[in-house]
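Annotated sample (chain length 122).
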Amino acid sequence: MENCAIHPAVAPLSYLLGRWRGEGEGGYPTINSFLYGEELHFSYSGSGKPVIAYSQKTWKLNSGEPMHSETGYWRPKPDGTIEVVIAQSTGLAEVLKGTYSAEDKIIKLQSQVVANASKVFL
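Output written by the structure step:
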């Protein structure tokens, strides 16, 4: 983050800023369970705009092979509401809306729009 003031609408969520990493186990009824690593990155550009940039990626723990990634923007408002806009590498785009409590560090989101672009075949 650059040496500049954080926008007042971003300040209540500044605890998110930085890199977050972890490991987990995933599973679906149609496939075997799997272990994965995950990294989320939240950043503020210092643009003066009330926007937090977001990126996320996952990989297979046993091989390091990439699995999923997405990027987007978190747009908090001073009234405690928030909009999140995300695009996934698969062509899926999503808009979520919700609320946040800075004091409790709780963010509640609900999907509003999901759109699917053409699939990429390699």
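Annotation: The CA atoms of residues 72 and 86 lie 4 Å apart.
Annotation: The longest strand covers residues 31-43.
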